[in-house]
């Protein structure tokens, strides 16, 4: 058996070559799952935003989704918090102050950081992918 660590934003490649995906934001692990589980049932707001920002043959639009905001400066990072929450447009301000934040196993071998995925509604997304 051999293992490969592939660092990319190209989720199309990930869907074709990986078995397990670890999604990171600003050096922080935010979600880990099998490729199939991650593409069909993404939980963390960054994972959902990342998947939504990728082009799709099924999407009829000239514009790609852009994740609002910017990555925090290294000098401003508070690693005890979920670093992506400040960029989530549909979250309430008080939720951005929540200290998270451990990884929680939400189903067999599917881990997600924090609790935001349970407490807040996400925009509808139709996501397809994963190896067949």
Structural description of this entry:
Keywords: ATP-binding, Cell membrane, Membrane, Nucleotide-binding, Transport. Its main location: membrane. The protein has 132 residues and is of the alpha+beta class. It has one domain. The chain is 19% helix and 17% strand. The chain contains 4 helices and 4 strands. It has helices at residues 11-17, 35-40, 45-52, 116-119, and strands spanning 20-25, 28-34, 103-107, 110-113. A 4-stranded antiparallel β-sheet has the order 1-2-4-3. A hairpin with a 2-residue loop joins strand 1 and strand 2. It is globular. The model is unreliable at 125-132 (pLDDT under 50).
Question: What attributes does this structure have?
Answer:
disordered C terminus; 19% helix; 132 residues; 17% strand; four-stranded antiparallel sheet; alpha+beta; 4 helices; globular; 4 strands
- The strand order across the widest sheet is 1-2-4-3
Distance between the termini: 21 Å
How many distinct beta strands? 4
Tertiary shape = globular
**What would you report as the Rg, rounded to the nearest angstrom?**
15 Å
Helix content: 10-25%
The whole-number mean of residue pLDDT values reads 78
Number of helices: 4
Poorly predicted runs are 125-132
How many independent structural domains?
A: 1
Structural class: alpha+beta
Question: How much β-strand is present in the residues?
Answer: 15-25%
Reported for the largest beta sheet, the result is: 4 strands, antiparallel
Return the string of H and E elements. HEEHHEEH
Family: Belongs to the ABC transporter superfamily.
Pfam family, one: oligo_HPY
GO cellular component, one term: membrane
Main location: membrane
């Amino acid at each position: 058996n051999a293992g490969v660590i592939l660092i990319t934003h190209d989720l199309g490649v990930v869907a074709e070559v990986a078995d397990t995906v670890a999604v990171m934001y600003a050096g922080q692990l935010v979600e880990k799952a099998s490729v199939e589980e991650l593409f069909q049932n993404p939980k963390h707001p960054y994972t959902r935003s990342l998947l939504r920002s990728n082009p799709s043959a099924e999407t009829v639009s000239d514009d790609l989704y852009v994740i609002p905001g910017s990555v925090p400066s290294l000098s401003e990072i508070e690693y005890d918090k979920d670093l992506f929450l400040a960029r989530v447009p549909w979250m309430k301000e008080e939720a951005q102050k929540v200290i998270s934040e451990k990884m929680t196993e939400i189903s067999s071998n599917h881990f997600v950081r924090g609790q935001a995925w349970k407490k807040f509604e996400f925009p509808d997304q139709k996501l397809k992918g994963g190896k067949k």
